[in-house]
Amino acid sequence: MKKLKVVPNPENPEKLLDLKYTPAKTWAAGIPAVAAAFSDLIEEKIPFRGMRALFSMNQNGGFDCPSCAWPDPDDERSPIGEYCENGVKALAEEATSKRVTEAFFAENSVVDLAQLTDFEIGKKGRLTSPMFLPKGGTHYQPISWDAAFKKIAGHLNALGSPNEAIFYTSGRTSNETSFLYQLFAKEFGTNNMPDCSNMCHETSGTALLPTIGIGKGTVKLDDFYQAEVIVVIGHNPGTNAPRMMTALQKGKDNGAKIIAINPLPEAGLMGFRNPQALNGILGIGEHYSDLYLPVKINGDMALLKAIGLLLAREERRTPGLVFEQEFIRQRTSGAEDYLAQFENYKLEELAVAAGLAIAEIEAAVEILAHKKKIIFAWGMGLTQQPNGVDMIREIVNLLLLKGSIGKPGAGVCPVRGHSNVQGNRTMLINEKPTLQQLDKIRDVFGFEPPRAHGYNVVSAIKAMHKQDVKVLFAMGGNFLSATPDTTFTAEALRKLRLSVHVSTKLNRSHLVHGEEALILPTLSRSDLDIVNGVAQFISTESSMGIVQSSKGILKPVSDQLLNETHIVCRMAMETLGERSVVDWKAYADDYDKIRDVIEKCIPGFENYNERIRQKGGFYLPNAARDGEFMTGIAGNKAAFTLSPVPLNLLSENEYLMATTRTHDQFNTTIYGLEDRYRGIKNERRVVFMNQQDMDRQGFKAEDKVDLFNFDDGIERIARLFLVVPYAIPERNVVTYFPEANVLVSINNVVKESNMPASKFVRIQIRPHQAVVSE
Ligand SMILES: Nc1nc2c(c(=O)[nH]1)N[C@H]1C(S)=C(S)[C@@H](COP(=O)(O)OP(=O)(O)OC[C@H]3O[C@@H](n4cnc5c(=O)[nH]c(N)nc54)[C@H](O)[C@@H]3O)O[C@H]1N2
Ligand SMILES: Nc1nc2c(c(=O)[nH]1)N[C@H]1C(S)=C(S)[C@@H](COP(=O)(O)OP(=O)(O)OC[C@H]3O[C@@H](n4cnc5c(=O)[nH]c(N)nc54)[C@H](O)[C@@H]3O)O[C@H]1N2
Ligand code: SF4
Ligand SMILES: [Mo]
User: Fold this and answer.
1) Which residues surround ligand 4, an ion (CB under 5 A)?
2) Which pLDDT does position 285 carry in this prediction?
3) Alpha-carbon span 97 to 556, nearest angstrom
4) Which residues are 435's β-sheet partners?
């Protein structure tokens, strides 16, 4: 008999481990969280180095947690520690004493390394020296920094146009490096600056800017403590911003009601045990969601409309008690049209579209009706939907009815992902800079920056595929695995003349590469950064617009690492040479000088060097938070908007799939193979399904299946997944990112923001068929 073998797939190895699963948890954190975190420090062989760093993480004068963008408290910080399990894991991952050396690359070919899973690749340790893969080469070879910069400059200067290069940014890069990086791209002559925001909260910015006049959130931590209602929609705080749960708990202690809207009953939405409070350690769970609404994937628009409709009815019944009429009249535009649309909607139909009972929606309205201090917090569950921009504008509509933006205890809270993704954007990493921003750069530096908009992530991939782009330079991140349509993107990357990655750890984007490829190893957040004998600090902006300093303390794992700022400056000097009017050397030598020039270019950074040295840093101005809506609409009014409810018809045996994160990963970095809160152990290739759907298709738990997507008439297959029965609405399934990215069509994007719609993928599920090789 022929031996069946899975064909090796370098972009996405399809191999199973040994799934164990138990019922999902109904509460997050507690002792297991603490234990899980510390075992990572031991596994990375850094119990002491790690503990020393932990005492410095998120403390005044210490370094900013490299994981998520949740802010630190404004007031006193806990001396036991201002971090969560994921902060510890992120630290263990980067502070590891394991090393990927030149000898490692000599022993392992690129093809062999690509057969490893992302988990296995990440566990190899920190990169230690610059490496080069020549055309046709099988192994990365050592290269000097000088030669590496010459190679980059040679390729960049040989391009037919600066727009044939792309400069990608992931969200960890500091304000200082980000500013210089975009300055270099502009002086080189391109706005091709796609970034991880193009896959993350671009949708939020696109929705908020024209409606409230700022593309960021409006709340502070303190608002969580004063709110009457907090709605958490399309976000999983227990896993992805764990210290947000402390803020939710504090709000609840002060009387706030919490509504959770999510197709999955995520542990962090249902209950919470605070590991830093004694009762948490003793295991007394708090059930803090007052109402959980198990909405269907993409059913949120129908739900938000139904809430609006019922609130309008209640306002008619008790005039003035539900809506903030004075605010609506004076501060907003478009309310009449918004309210008039409800004539076209039927509550019953909206409830069906949301996948909820009318009574569940009424329960939400009962909580909201007579409250005026409301926060809506959201994440990828909304932003990665085709109509994500519409849905966030619908949230704005509801908040405007309540006068709930621009006053204490109320507002919008897009929970940002990467620790400095918000800062990257503030520092002008953006493929669509405004004319005002460009004029400022021209005036301060004396060169004419390009005006044409550049590529975002999706258009960048298409341009590479068409060979309109020849060089990709990535400041951090994992371009191949984070982006959609893995096979298409891999083809695109392989067409490049040169791919360059500035990285801390090995990842799949180093292994699916251009004709030539470079890996440039850099310092991480927790590393000591000494320039000319002086320890430097950098700065970052949190999800709530607080800019603070960050100073690493750990001895770097190799003396060959260069900090990101130096990498940018040396690339700029080598590439631009005499053409440049910027004093790159001065910036490379002293970060204060970078901050001085940021202050000249970007509003809100007055006395940057002085204020960044203050305890806790400083808040950036936020007009909407102060009740000023700089929308340009008559007298600067916030805008109501009208959006449709999508139909989402599914054909027979078709499912809507959302890709999501486990508790044991940070994006494409896989810390471990558990998803503790969802009861999954030792496997990532799982598909969460409703039992009814399993019965209909004749699947049993742990059956092996293949997943198919047929968008644009192309068959995309993700093979070898295991079925796990789960509390999820019928015809909805959930898989993990990045394993399922192969199914997300490059054309499946969010309207207006152009982000991949990775939470809305039409798939079919069939019994697994092994591929016969030979
Ligand atoms: N530990 C850890 N922390 C992280 C990250 C990580 O990977 N690991 N990543 C960081 C980054 S970059 C980001 S952007 C954030 C992401 O943090 P989140 O926004 O929480 O991201 P996800 O885990 O992708 O999914 C969010 C939730 O959306 C729900 N969802 C899916 N579809 C829908 C829908 O149609 N409607 C609603 N209402 N909900 C839906 C899912 O069930 C899931 O609970 O986390 C940051 N923090
Ligand atoms: N299907 C699907 N796809 C998604 C998502 C989803 O929910 N579903 N989420 C999207 C979201 S929200 C995001 S933000 C993107 C994330 O996209 P990216 O930001 O591109 O990916 P990461 O996995 O965060 O990047 C990890 C790599 O960054 C490098 N790194 C870590 N720290 C540093 C550092 O300090 N400096 C430098 N130079 N490098 C460093 C390491 O080498 C590591 O391998 O993925 C997106 N893709
Ligand atoms: S909540 Fe986010 S920023 Fe804070 S310690 Fe945890 S992972 Fe780090
Ligand atoms: Mo993100």
Assistant:
1) 200, 417
2) 60
3) 10
4) none
Q: Which amino acid is at 53?
A: A
Condensed to tens digits (0 to 9), the pLDDT of residues 702-760 reads 999 999 999 999 999 999 999 999 999 999 999 999 999 999 999 999 999 999 999 99
Residues 436, 561: one domain?
Answer: yes
Nearest atom within ligand 3 for CA of residue 241: 1
Pairing of strands 716-725, 686-689: parallel
- Same domain as 696, residue 566: no
Pocket flag, ligand 3, residue 400 (CB < 6 Å):
no
Which pLDDT score, from 0 to 100, does residue 271 have?
Answer: 75
Same domain flag for 294 and 374: yes
CATH code of the domain in which 11 resides: 2.40.40.20
Check whether residue 405 and residue 441 sit in a common domain.
Answer: no
Shared domain check, 229 and 106: no
Regarding whether 653 and 540 lie in a shared domain, the answer is: no
**Tens of pLDDT, residues 271-314:** 776 666 545 544 446 667 899 999 999 999 999 999 999 999 99
Q: How many structural domains are present in the chain? A: 4
Beta carbon of 236 within 6 Å of any ligand 1 atom? yes
Final residue belonging to a domain, choices 603, 619, 635? 619
In the numeric block, the tokens 């509504």 are attached to: 259
Which phi and psi angles does 705 have, rounded to 5°?
-135, 165
639 within a domain of the structure (yes/no): no
Residue 22 lies in a domain: no
* Best residue among 173, 175, 503 to mutate for probing ligand 2, ranked by most atoms within 8 Å of CB: 503
Which carries the bigger pLDDT value, residue 53 or residue 365? Answer: 365
CB 383 within 8 A of CB 755: yes
Angle between helix 358-369 and 300-317 (nearest 10): 60
Q: Are residues 103 and 91 in the same domain?
A: no
Whose CA is closest to 529, among 272, 174, 221, 136? 174
The single-letter DSSP state of residue 163 is G
Measured distance CA(467)–CA(471) in Å, rounded = 10
In which domain, by residue range, is 42 found?
A: 31-95
What is the C-alpha end-to-end distance of the chain, expressed in Å?
Answer: 13
Its pTM stands at 0.96
459 inside domain: yes
On whether residue 768 sits in a domain, the answer given is yes
Domain boundary among 414, 439, 456: 414
Spatial distance between the Cα atoms of 534 and 593, rounded to a whole number of angstroms:
14
CB–CB of 272/253 below 8 Å?
Answer: no
Ligand 3 pocket, 671 CB below 6 A? no
Same domain, 266 and 366: yes
CA-proximal residue: ligand 1, atom 38 (nearest): 234
Other CB atoms within a 10 A radius of the CB of residue 541 amount to 30
Query: What is the tens place of the pLDDT at every residue in 391-450?
Result: 999 999 999 999 999 999 999 999 999 999 999 999 999 999 999 999 999 999 999 999
Report pLDDT digits (tens) over 166-187.
Answer: 999 999 999 999 999 999 999 9
